[in-house]
Specification:
Length: 100
């Protein structure tokens, strides 16, 4: 079954101190950081009953260093897959999908 979002937050805090869940648009981020938001959910049914569910989160690592090790640590999370990489405003963004 889905685990509490706070447990995911705690796992991300082990990787870096600056972890933000759905911050407001005008919020000033400190880099490097991990930014994550809820994106979707997956439900599994059997015998007309829900037996498993996972919430899907978009997890983005933002860092000035293009060789940062933070994305490698995020990639080690269970049920994590790499989505894309892009650069904006001199910052490197590595985007992952995590079911938790």
């Amino acid at each position: 079954m889905a685990q509490p979002r706070t447990k995911l937050h705690d796992l991300l805090k082990v990787i870096t101190d600056n972890v933000y869940f759905q911050p407001p648009e005008n919020f000033k981020l400190e880099y490097p950081c991990i930014l994550y938001k809820r994106e979707d959910a997956e439900f599994r049914h059997a015998n007309n009953a829900l037996y498993d569910q996972f919430k899907k989160y978009q997890v983005t690592v933002i860092d000035r260093d293009p060789e940062s090790g933070i994305p490698d640590e995020v990639a080690k999370l269970p049920m994590c897959s790499f989505n894309r990489h892009f650069t904006a405003d001199g910052l490197n963004h590595d985007v992952y999908q995590v079911f938790f």
